[in-house]
Design goal:
Layout lengths: L8 H12 L3 H15 L1 H16 L9 H15 L1
Length: 80
């Protein structure tokens, strides 16, 4: 489980791995657990932003699961 004060590299790597595998269900489950246990703000600043920085320069495919998951996340947070 994510630790608010711990290293988040493992979670970032899990998100990267599920993105490269085009496994949206796993990506969504990992993302949901991170937000659930860390809270939205800490999840964004500690995991999501570093994840996006990590994949940003290497991304060449616009159909990665992160696209849909991040869109869903934003819609869910705005609507909720």
């Amino acid at each position: 489980m994510p630790q608010p004060g711990g290293s988040n590299d493992i979670f970032i790597n899990q998100l990267v791995e599920s993105s490269l595998d085009f496994d949206q269900d796993t990506f969504d489950r990992i993302l949901h657990n991170i937000i659930l246990h860390m809270g939205f703000e800490r999840a964004i600043t500690g995991v999501i932003y570093p994840f996006l920085q990590k994949i940003g320069p290497h991304r060449s495919c616009s159909t990665l699961p992160v696209e849909n998951s991040m869109s869903s996340l934003c819609c869910t947070c705005v609507i909720s």
